[in-house]
Design goal:
47% strand, globular, four-stranded antiparallel β-sheet
């Protein structure tokens, strides 16, 4: 069982930066691949990026590639999403999620992930 708590959201102007954090409970954090997803009003939840259990591999949606960076610290049970050059279309609730090592499926599919945080709002003004 993993509990996830996001923080770091807020209001920022276009072109600005935010760093989201996700704190995880439990002693098995390093066994979970972690993902970030977002959901804008009236839209489906969409993939932002993912990071492997060790942190050695990352993957990103095309819309954020080159602007967003995911990192993790397994010693501190945390995962971060550094967001630079923010655009108004990045406005959404951002969720971190954990994928069990026994879960199959693509890492860009929300249904693949087993545990979710409550989300943190990111608003980018133009």
């Amino acid at each position: 069982q993993v509990q996830l708590v996001e923080s770091g959201g807020g209001l920022v102007q276009a072109g600005g930066s935010l760093r989201l954090s996700c704190a995880a409970s439990g002693r098995t954090f390093s066994t979970y691949a972690m993902g970030w997803f977002r959901q804008a009003p009236g839209k489906e939840r969409e993939f932002v990026g993912t990071i492997s259990r060790s942190g050695g591999a990352t993957a990103y949606a095309e819309s954020v590639k080159g602007r967003f960076t995911i990192s993790r610290d397994n010693a501190k049970n945390t995962v971060h999403l550094q967001m630079n050059s923010l655009k108004p279309e990045d406005t959404a609730v951002y969720y971190c999620a954990a994928k069990s090592p026994y879960s199959t499926g693509s890492n860009d599919n929300p249904g693949t992930f087993n545990y979710w945080g409550q989300g943190t709002q990111v608003t980018v003004s133009s």
